[in-house]
Every structure is written in structure tokens, then in C-alpha cells.
Amino acid sequence: MTATLSSLKNFRPNSDWAKLPLFDRTGWRTMAFGEFAVSVNERVEPSSAADEIYVGLDDLDSGCLHVRRWGKGSDVIGTKLRFRKGDIIFGRRRAYQRKLAVAEFDGICSAHAMVTRAKPKLVLPEFLPFLMMSDRFMKRAVEISVGSLSPTINWTTLKHEPFILPPLDQQRRIAEILWAVDANIQCWQGTSHAAGEMRRAVVTEFIAQYESKLVSLGDCLDEVQYGSSSKAILQPASGLLPLLRIPNVIGGKVDYADLVWLEPTEEFTKYRLKDGDVLIVRTNGNPEYVGRTAVHEVSKYKECLFASYLIRLRPKQEMLMPRFLHEMLESERVKKEIRKQVKSSAGNYNLNTQGIRGLRIPLPSIQVQQVFLERLASVGSAVDAASRHAESLLTLRTAFLNNHFTGHTP
Question: Cα–chain-centroid distance for residue 137?
């Protein structure tokens, strides 16, 4: 199973798929969306549904067919929409976010959603969600949205959009395959989440052992340095160095995919990163982003600079391992301390060098730090493996969907 899933990493649809019976388009026909689906517009006031489940757009995850979070009608105000078990809740506002889920219970949802229900004589309820998840559907949903700040789909437009439909028996076979793939995706994502919880428990337990022996972070650092505020160059050119910014510090790692550039003049010498420097986000409009960290490691770019909304922490090598510092700063205990240091100004939330120096972290010996990191790496490998399997299956599902729903009927 592992070898098979791993091989899907670079999965590409095979043109010969179309020759398989499942992909035979004989009998497929093009129909307007409103011919085989309806928009359910049953309005509800939360005051009359205080104890019912409420699903907002923030409760839907991009690309996931399942509702994982919800609130109660008493939590919200304003007119909402009623949905029934089996209905599709589709985020018609900002459709590019691809928020769409099948309701597994009755409830009410945001009026910025569209409650869609299949007409079973033409499209199976278990098949319709996958048609709506296809790139073909989502692309048109974005194209027909109106409004600049919060583009929104109108049913009066969507219902006229043409899509291709297989016969019902073929819909059933396709749906069975895709729901089986979805079940495996949920399994691997659940495994990744469980392993992630185990990893956080290891960190929490470790910090608790040293609760009475915390030290000020400032005593463990050789340098705390703000980045460059110079205007960057958008396109790479000979002699320029990449400039790391807030978007490059994500998921606990340095992401080199979205770079800007600076000329490495003598003035910028102090902004050059060394292997093992820890970058921390110091300002953002979202307070949850302030304090995100990553360790800079020499990559395909032998030299990098860093921008002003980041702060570079350079640990004293004899006292503190960079990766250990990163794990402590990402721990829930230290994050709570960081949030206390964050100040609000002009719509942004900021963390300064004084606040960073005042943070308190455990400081065991280098040997203990190393053992701790090795234990985390062991648990982390399980998280990564499960995530890779889930991503591979998502790639397979996307390829399958697009092979079916892109193109024209014979």
C-alpha cells in the first residue's frame, strides 16, 4: 500500500483512460445546471433556530466534502438558510476558496452559502458533489461571480451554465470510486492529525519537566536583528540575492517558492543569513501569524537576506540549538507568552526585540536538546508520511474528476 501511494506523488492522468468502459461517454449529455440541481432558499431567523446547528463559511475547509466544525443558531444574527441532510453547502461568496461540503445532518448555514440539492431523476445526490468539485465547475463559478471585494455567484446565472452528465448507472459507479477515495483521504488525514497531537504532547511534556528552570531567551542569543526595509526587486537577475519575507515563513519552514530580490551591497551585509539563523514574524494584520518561526538552512540559494517584518535570532551555539529554539517558540506555552507581548498599532499586531528577549524557555544541555529533537523527528516522520499519502490521494481524485468533467460530449 505504501509503495503504491508513494508512486502517486507525480501522478499524471493517462490519455488511455478514455478507452476504459468507465470513461465511455456514449449517452452523456450536456444540461444546464438548473435542469438537474436546485437552489434551496428556505430562509431562517437564528432566533427561531437557537439550538440548531449553524455552519458558517469559516467552518468549511477548502477541498473537503465534510463539515468538521459548527456552532449554534444562538451564536449568530441575521437571516440564514436551512439545509437538510444530504444537501450541498457551497460557498458562493469567494468561490475561488473551493468551499463545498455535503451535510450529514440538518441545520442552518450562512446566507453567503448556496444550498444545492440534486434532482435524483437526472443526477444522483452522491454524484453531484464531485461534479461541483471539478476544476470545470469551479472555474466557471469564479468566472461568473460578481463584485470586486467579495465576488459572489448568483443562482440566476449559475443555473444556466452547461455541464456534461453521464447516465445514472455510470454516475453510480463513478461516485462509488470517488467516495472510496474520499474515505481513504479522511483516514490518512485523521492519522496525520493524531500523529500531530502526539507530537504536541511530547513538546508539552518536555516543557513541563523544566517549568521550574526557565531562562530568559535574551541570555541565550548572540544577536536579535530587524531585517531590511529597502524596496525589493520583483524579478531575479544576475548578482541579486533572494529576500525572505513573511510569506516565506510558513508551516514551521522556510518556503523559497515566492521570492523577491535585493542587490547585495555593503549596506546589506548585516542582513545576510547564516545557516541556523531563526526567523520570527514580528508584525502582521492577523495576530495569530505574529511569532511564526522557521530555521534558515543553506538551500539552493547559498546566501539570503531577510526583510523588515522579520527578526533574525542567532542563538549562542554552545547553549542553544537552532532547531530546539524553533520548537520552543512554536510550543503552545511560549506562544501564549508571545501573545502577551504583541501590541496593536494601526491595524497591525507587532512584536519587538525587547519582548522577544524577555521570553522564557527551558534550557537543558545540548545533549538533552539533541535527544528531544530526535524524538520529535521520529513522531514527525509519521505526520509527514500520513500527509503525503493524503496529498497523493487528493492528486488522484483531482485527476479523475478532471478527466471526467473536462471536455465535451461526443
Answer: 21
In 3D, which of 46, 49, 386 has the Cα closest to residue 184?
386
Q: What's the whole-model pTM score?
A: 0.70
Q: CA-to-CA distance for 107 and 381, rounded, in angstroms?
A: 39
Q: What are the pLDDT digits (tens) for 259-302?
A: 999 998 888 889 999 999 999 999 999 888 899 999 999 877 88
For 203, the enclosing helix (H) or strand (E) is helix 168-209
Residues 301 and 206: their CA atoms lie apart, in Å, by 34
Label the pairing between strands 53-55 and 107-109: parallel
For 51-145, where are the alpha helices, taking DSSP H only? 128-133, 135-143
Do you know the residue count of the chain?
Answer: 410
Average pLDDT, the chain: 90
Question: Do 87 and 117 touch, CB atoms closer than 8 A?
Answer: yes
pLDDT of residue 278: 97
Question: Does residue 217 have a pLDDT over 60?
Answer: yes
Find, among 291, 380, 365, the residue nearest to 332 by Cα. 291
Find the largest Cα–Cα distance for the chain: 74
